[in-house]
Recover the amino acids of this structure.
């Protein structure tokens, strides 16, 4: 059955709400959990579900994403499996950028339909979850649906941020509203006893769709003015087609902004995290870097995730994620933070030269205090630097860093001089 399915992962637009992490990379290429990229999540879910043919659609800052896909997803020459990038391109028929999720698929359709498939699975590139798509597709086939939308029960507080829908006794969707601000009581659904017990009474679209091949081609061709699935295509389809709700009750979060990104990463340090990276049935695949094991000296660790290749001499690392090749100096304290690490090690010669010039090294120096912060890749944090994020800081975008919801984000590759206080 999965041989009849083709996966399409939407790389997202400019990703401005995730800026400054998206200033030099596309949203799916943003590092997560210390060693992965966001795009690894939907790709891994597909591979674990037996879906081995995927396209990733992107148009903004796609160089690092292209490099990651090329270096990571290699398949046997005797296999039909692939993960290919489809970037926005000018053609005789279309000279513009992708204008929305549906428009992106429409513009790439001539590449997509050159492959054999009966069903197309459309996914977002900026969500954290583990789902078995086989079950979703089986339910789609059993119900003789033309579209299936993955849905998740949410609370009234969260409902205003999502597309909310109602279903009949066969789980067929009968109505849909995008981000309702009033009249929520009219959209309460029977989500099951357990979900209702948690106050999760509303069915929200997860932005995960299964389409029948010919149906998708037809509906995209019917009205080329419709650019977006959630806002235009699906509301129209619900009134005239069989659209199934597939209710998912596991962990799922939309990495839409800095706050949700920060919470998702630090949530991985919990004793029993909601997102289980240690589930062998839902392995997360990423680039094999052949890095040495991490080396830790004199450090108190508590609720910490340490990726490969780190050199840590900090006095304390607590409720924090350290990414690949992270270097942390002596007597430094890291709390409530995500340190993304670096793309390379400096040689002894480079370290001696930089030190003789009084320059900071790649990593975090001695006697620093880092709290409520995200340190992007390849940053040089000098000695005695104090970064203390929190509600006392006003949001703003500055030359070397940004503050969003009290979280200090040090921009990729910047150097903070010794003694800097934020």
């Amino acid at each position: 059955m999965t041989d009849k399915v083709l996966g399409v992962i939407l790389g997202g637009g400019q990703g401005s709400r995730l800026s400054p992490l998206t200033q030099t990379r596309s949203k799916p290429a943003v590092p997560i959990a210390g060693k992965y990229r966001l795009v690894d999540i939907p790709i891994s879910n597909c591979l674990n579900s037996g879906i081995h043919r995927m396209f990733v659609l992107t148009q903004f800052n796609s160089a690092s994403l292209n490099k990651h896909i090329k270096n990571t997803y290699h398949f046997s020459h005797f296999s039909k499996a692939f993960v290919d990038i489809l970037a926005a391109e000018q053609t005789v028929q279309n000279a513009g950028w992708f204008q929305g999720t549906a428009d992106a698929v429409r513009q790439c359709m001539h590449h997509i339909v050159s492959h054999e498939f009966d069903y197309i699975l459309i996914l977002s590139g900026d969500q954290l979850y583990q789902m078995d798509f086989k079950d979703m597709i089986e339910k789609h086939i059993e119900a003789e649906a033309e579209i299936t939308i993955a849905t998740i029960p949410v609370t009234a507080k969260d409902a205003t941020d999502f597309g909310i829908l109602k279903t009949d006794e066969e789980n067929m969707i009968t109505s849909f509203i995008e981000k309702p601000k009033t009249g929520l009581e009219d959209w309460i659904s029977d989500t099951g006893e357990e979900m209702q017990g948690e106050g999760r009474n509303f069915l929200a679209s997860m932005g995960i769709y299964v389409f029948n091949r010919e149906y998708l081609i037809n509906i995209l061709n019917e009205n080329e003015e419709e650019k977006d699935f959630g806002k235009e295509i699906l509301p129209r389809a619900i009134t005239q087609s069989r659209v199934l709700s597939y209710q998912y009750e596991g962990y799922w979060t939309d990495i839409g902004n800095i706050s949700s990104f920060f919470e998702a990463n630090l949530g991985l340090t919990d004793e029993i995290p909601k997102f289980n990276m240690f589930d062998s049935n839902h392995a997360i695949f990423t680039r094999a870097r052949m890095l040495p094991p991490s080396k830790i000296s004199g450090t108190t660790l508590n609720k910490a995730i340490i990726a490969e290749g780190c050199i840590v001499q900090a006095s304390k690392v607590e409720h924090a994620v350290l990414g690949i090749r992270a270097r942390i100096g002596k007597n430094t304290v890291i709390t409530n933070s995500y340190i993304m690490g670096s793309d390379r090690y400096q040689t002894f010669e480079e370290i001696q030269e930089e030190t003789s010039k009084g320059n900071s090294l790649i990593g975090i120096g001695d006697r620093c205090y880092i709290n409520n912060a995200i340190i992007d890749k390849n940053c040089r944090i000098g000695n005695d630097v104090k970064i203390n994020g929190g509600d006392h800081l006003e949001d703003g975008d500055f030359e070397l860093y940004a503050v969003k919801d009290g979280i200090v984000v040090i921009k990729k590759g910047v150097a903070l001089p010794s003694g800097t206080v934020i």
Summary: The chain has a mean pLDDT of 91.
